[in-house]
Design a protein that fits this description.
22 helices, single chain, Hypothetical protein af1432, alpha+beta, Ubiquitin-like (UB roll), Beta Polymerase, domain 2
C-alpha cells in the first residue's frame, strides 16, 4: 500500500495562476505587471531544469500560486515569480529594480539573502550582515511569506532528490521553517511541512500513523458529525447563527503524541470541531451550550480569547467526552478569529492596506516585531540570529500584579523580565516576589506566574558578570553587557 502521495505541482501554466488572481485582483494594470514578471522570469530561467526534469519556471509559478491562494497583493505575487532570478540567472538586483520598482526588488533581495544565510556561522562580519537581513525581514514580513511558500513547494516536490538531501531538507524544515510558520500563525503550512518532513525522515513511522488514522477515519467522522448536528441544533434554538468545521489531527502531531506515550484514546485534540459564530459574546454563550450537551475536562479548558497565544491566535478550547473511547476538542471563535487561525499574520495583508501601515500595526501588536526592531537598532552587537531562534522556542506567559502579560521563552528568569520592563531596573530592584512568595533572580519562571518586582529610585546593585549566566534571553544578555561597560564610569554608582 502506498501511504504517501507527493503533492507535487499544483499548476503548470500561467493561465491557471491568472484564473486564481482574477478572483481577487481587479486592477488590470496590476495583472499586467504580474504577467510581465512571469514573461521575464520565464525568459531568464530558459534552459534551466529542476531535478525532476521539468522546466524551472514551474517552481516560481507554484510559489506564486500558493501566495495567490492566500490572496496576497500583486507585489508579493510578482516577487514570488521573480524570487530566484537574481540568485540563479544573470539578472542583477539593480536591473530588477529598474523593471519592477524598489519594493518588489527589495522583496526578491530579502528572499535571496535568507536563502544564502548561514545560521551556523560565528564569523562576526556574517553576524552583522545577518542582523541587517533580519531587520529587513521585520520591516517587510512578506519576505518570510515568500520563503515559506518556496520551501513548501520544494518539499512538495522532493521525490526527485537523492535520499541524503531529502533527509537534510526535511530536518532543516522541522528545525527552522515549521517554527517559523507557527510563529506567524500559518498553521496549514506548518502541518503540511511537518507531515512531509516526517515522511522523508522516518517513512516507517509516517506509514504506521497513516494506517492507524485511515482505519479509524470513518468512525472519527461519524463521531464528529453526530456532535456537529447536536451542537448546531442547540445553537439554532438559542438564535446563534453558526457553522462548524470538522478535522482530525495531522500525522506528525499524532506521531509526536504517540512518541510521548499518549495513545489515541487520550489525545485531547485528536478530533476537533471548529464552532464559528458572529461575535465574542456569542463565543461565551456557545461555550455554555456545548458544555450543556457534553461533559468537559475542566483542566483542559483554555480561554485564548481574553488572553491570546503569543502569535495572537484566539479561540476557546474545551475538551469533550464523546460517549466513545475518543475525546474531541471544540474550538469556539468568531469569523475574524477563524480567519487569523487559517491565515495568521497574512490576514493583515488581505485588507488592501499599504505595507508601512501594516508593519507599524504588527510592531504595536506583536512583541516579536517590536523587540526585533528595538534590538537591531539599539544594540549594535546583538547576535540577531540567536535572538530570532529564541523567538521560535516554546513561550510562557507571566503576569505583573496589575494584570499586564509578558511572553518569554521557556526557562526565563525574573532578570529577563526586568529588561522588558525597564533597562535599569536590575540596578534598582530590592526584592522579587513570585506568586506572593519571595524569590531570587535565578528562579525559573513558570507559565502563569505572577511576578512582583520592588525597586528604589536609587541604584542599589552594581552590574555583575554572573548575571550573564542567569539571563536566558539575548535581549537581557545584551542589556547586561551594556551595563557592565558603563560600570567603568564610577560616577554612575556613587549613589550606592
Amino acid at each position: 500500500m502506498e501511504y504517501y502521495k507527493e503533492v507535487g505541482n499544483v499548476i503548470y501554466t500561467y493561465d491557471e495562476l491568472l484564473a486564481l488572481l482574477k478572483t481577487y485582483i481587479v486592477d488590470e494594470s496590476k495583472l499586467e505587471l504580474i504577467k510581465r514578471a512571469y514573461l521575464i522570469a520565464k525568459k531568464m530561467h530558459v534552459g534551466q531544469l529542476r531535478k525532476s526534469g521539468e522546466s524551472y519556471i514551474i517552481h516560481p509559478l507554484n510559489v506564486a500560486y500558493i501566495a495567490a491562494q492566500y490572496k496576497l497583493d500583486y507585489e508579493t505575487i510578482c516577487a514570488s515569480i521573480l524570487h530566484d532570478v537574481v540568485e540563479d540567472t544573470d539578472m542583477s538586483l539593480d536591473e530588477l529594480g529598474s523593471l519592477f520598482g524598489i519594493r518588489i526588488s527589495n522583496l526578491v533581495d530579502g528572499v535571496t539573502k535568507i536563502t544564502n544565510m548561514q545560521f551556523k556561522s560565528k564569523d562576526q562580519e556574517n553576524i552583522a550582515n545577518q542582523s541587517k537581513i533580519l531587520h529587513g525581514m521585520c520591516s517587510d514580513v512578506r519576505i518570510i511569506f515568500i520563503k515559506l511558500f518556496d520551501r513548501l513547494h520544494n518539499m512538495r516536490t522532493m521525490s526527485s532528490m537523492d535520499k541524503k538531501k531529502q533527509i537534510l531538507k526535511a530536518k532543516e524544515t522541522i528545525n527552522i521553517y515549521v517554527p517559523l510558520a507557527y510563529r506567524y500563525g500559518l498553521y496549514r503550512i506548518k502541518e503540511e511541512l511537518e507531515d512531509i518532513a516526517l515522511y522523508y525522515i522516518n517513512k516507517d513511522s509516517y506509514n504506521r500513523v497513516f494506517e492507524m488514522l485511515s482505519a479509524r477515519k470513518p468512525q472519527f467522522y461519524n463521531i464528529l458529525s453526530e456532535m456537529k448536528g447536536n451542537i448546531l441544533d442547540e445553537l439554532i434554538k438559542s438564535g446563534i447563527n453558526s457553522r462548524i468545521e470538522l478535522s482530525i489531527k495531522n500525522i506528525h502531531g499524532v506521531y509526536r503524541r504517540l512518541n510521548d506515550g499518549i495513545d489515541l484514546e487520550n489525545m485531547h485534540d485528536l478530533l476537533a470541531l471548529k464552532v464559528i459564530v458572529p461575535t465574542v459574546l456569542e463565543c461565551y454563550s456557545s461555550l455554555g451550550i456545548v458544555h450543556s450537551l457534553y461533559n468537559c475536562m475542566n483542566e483542559r479548558l483554555r480561554d485564548y480569547i481574553s488572553q491570546g497565544k503569543s502569535n495572537h491566535y484566539q479561540s476557546f478550547h474545551t475538551v469533550l467526552f464523546t460517549g466513545t473511547p475518543y475525546l474531541a476538542q471544540a474550538r469556539i471563535r468568531t469569523e475574524e478569529m477563524n480567519k487569523f487561525a487559517s491565515s495568521g499574520i497574512i490576514s493583515y495583508y488581505q485588507k488592501g492596506r499599504e505595507n508601512d501601515e501594516i508593519r507599524q500595526e504588527l510592531e504595536r501588536e506583536f512583541s516579536f516585531f517590536s523587540e526585533l526592531v528595538k534590538a537591531s537598532s539599539f544594540y549594535d552587537n546583538t547576535d540577531m540570529v540567536n535572538f530570532v531562534k529564541e523567538q521560535f522556542q516554546p513561550m510562557i506567559k507571566v503576569y505583573t500584579p496589575d494584570g499586564k502579560i509578558f511572553k518569554l521563552p521557556l526557562g526565563s528568569t525574573p532578570l529577563d523580565l526586568m529588561f522588558k520592563l525597564e533597562s535599569d531596573l536590575i540596578l534598582r530592584f530590592t526584592a522579587i516576589f513570585v506568586n506572593n512568595r519571595p524569590a531570587e533572580i535565578v528562579y525559573k519562571l513558570q507559565d502563569g506566574d505572577i511576578l512582583s518586582i520592588y525597586s528604589s529610585d536609587k541604584i542599589k546593585n552594581i552590574p555583575k558578570s554572573k548575571w550573564l549566566h542567569i539571563a536566558q534571553t539575548e535581549y537581557a544578555k545584551e542589556g547586561i553587557k551594556q551595563l557592565l561597560k558603563s560600570k567603568k564610569n564610577i560616577d554612575n554608582f556613587r549613589t550606592l
